Amino acid sequence: MDDFHAIAPDQVVQRHAQPGVSLLTVLHAIQDELGYVPPATVAPLARAMNLSRAEVHGVITYYHHFRTEPAAPVTVQLCRAEACRSMGTEALAQHIEAHTGCRFDAEHRQGATVELESVYCLGQCALSPALTINGTLHARVSPEKFDAIFAAASKCAEVTA
């Protein structure tokens, strides 16, 4: 991922906003490249796609997947949908909060090292409870399994920091 501050918003938008490409596809491409959709890309993206800034902003804020600031070095997304709930995801959520000292869906603090997010279906209903850590999917997660994969993710985050 490039450092956004080293790249002009117009350049990022120009790379991805090609004729015939949908706004969602462009937003995904920007987030894949930068790790988030910087607010400074809204105006150039609106111009490039012949949309209003409000329309672009509305799409970014409607979909929970899109971020408008960089994620924490370790981001946990826990499925809170019914299948995972029936298999103990709420007890797992309590364990995760106690283990990390963070709360699910709390406002993201710049500089935080861990972020916990609720999501509603990771497509692993038969293998619940499921979660992702930094985008890597894990199924049949127990508190012990969480502790192990979280420790590994935290160690990787320290190495790349």
UniProtKB/TrEMBL annotation:
Q: Where is the signal peptide?
A: none
What is a GO molecular function of this protein? metal ion binding
Coiled-coil segments, which residues? Answer: none
Entries under InterPro entries matching the protein: NADP_DH_HndA-like (IPR028431), NuoE-like (IPR002023), NuoE_N (IPR041921), Thioredoxin-like_sf (IPR036249)
Record keywords: Metal-binding included? yes
Keyword Cell inner membrane recorded: no
Note the PANTHER family from the entry: BIFURCATING [FEFE] HYDROGENASE GAMMA SUBUNIT, NADH-QUINONE OXIDOREDUCTASE, E SUBUNIT
Q: This chain belongs to which protein, by name?
A: Formate dehydrogenase gamma subunit
